[in-house]
Specification:
alpha/beta; 13 helices; about 280 residues; two-stranded antiparallel ribbon; about 15% strand
């Protein structure tokens, strides 16, 4: 007998005309999200309101995490299998780059952008956040106190991390503390790709539950530890230049050496896609 299907010789199976409306099967609602394959990565596409609703209303029994790919991430993914593995295990991939979006738009592909810093700010400002527990992994306690003052109705817990390496004793200690933390949403702010490795380890260990967001410097922006580019600069897709000028010693290699490689990757992807269409 097939499980879930009870066949009884004397039972009466109603025909279509006898079935009541409430007995009929209804189609599942369509998902507001779609996939878009671009330069070797499957991006998840959705409206900002749908992303907020998904994150705020999800109650997973296991741990799932979001990544927020930008140009630097896509470049490193091609040459680092460990980073690629962490991305493969991610539940969702939300584009964080105007440059990637514009390259996609040149091919009439709608790659919606929702930067990690905006996601965090919108989440904490949403009234539903006051019914949830948040945990922040990475920044120091003074930043958490600033966030608590700014969002007094939000339950914000702090999980210290420090400058730890994957697999080290401090790393294991932070993982254990995160697993023991009874939070709904985890803001993992350890910089790329350390935060993605941390989220992957949490998922693979199988003891944590909730939604993890790998959102880099988002807390630094919210607490003014790092100054974010003005909105008009971000709208022009020039936030990278603002960050470069603000911290040239730290950012020059990422933006002036690694960053331009995305053009070559795009051209290779475009050539391969054009050849496939022939």
């Amino acid at each position: 007998m097939i499980a879930g299907f009870n066949r009884h010789p004397t039972s009466h199976m109603p025909n279509r005309s006898e079935q009541k409306p409430e007995d009929s099967l209804t189609a599942a609602p369509a998902s507001p999200f779609s996939k878009l394959q671009f330069i070797g990565l499957d991006f998840d596409i959705g409206k900002q309101a749908d992303w907020l609703s998904l994150i705020l209303n999800s109650k997973p029994e296991t741990f799932e995490y979001f990544v927020t790919p930008n140009v630097y991430h896509v470049i490193l993914l091609e040459r680092d299998d460990e980073v690629a593995s962490a991305y493969e295990d991610a539940f969702r991939k939300v584009c964080d780059s105007k440059i990637l979006s514009r390259l996609a738009n040149s091919q009439k592909m709608n790659l919606r952008v929702y930067p990690g810093a905006d996601i965090v700010q919108d989440l904490l400002a949403d009234p539903k956040a006051q019914n949830l527990r948040f945990a922040v992994v990475g920044p120091d306690l003074s930043q958490i106190e600033m966030l608590r003052n700014r969002y007094p109705g939000v339950d914000l817990q702090y999980i210290p991390s420090g400058f730890m390496d994957r697999g080290a004793q401090d790393w294991e200690k932070a993982l254990t503390a995160t697993e023991a933390c009874d939070a709904d949403i985890f803001l993992i702010c350890l910089s790329f790709p350390k935060q993605e490795f941390f989220a992957q380890d949490l998922k693979r260990r199988g003891s944590a539950a909730g939604i993890g967001l790998c959102v880099g410097a988002s807390i630094d922006f919210l607490t003014d530890r790092q100054k974010r580019a003005p909105e008009w600069v971000r709208a022009c897709g020039m936030e990278w230049a603002f960050r470069l000028l603000a911290n040239p010693k730290r950012m020059w290699r990422r933006y002036l050496w690694d960053g331009p490689k995305i053009i070559w990757m795009f051209l290779k992807w475009w050539h391969k896609s054009a050849s496939t269409m022939k």
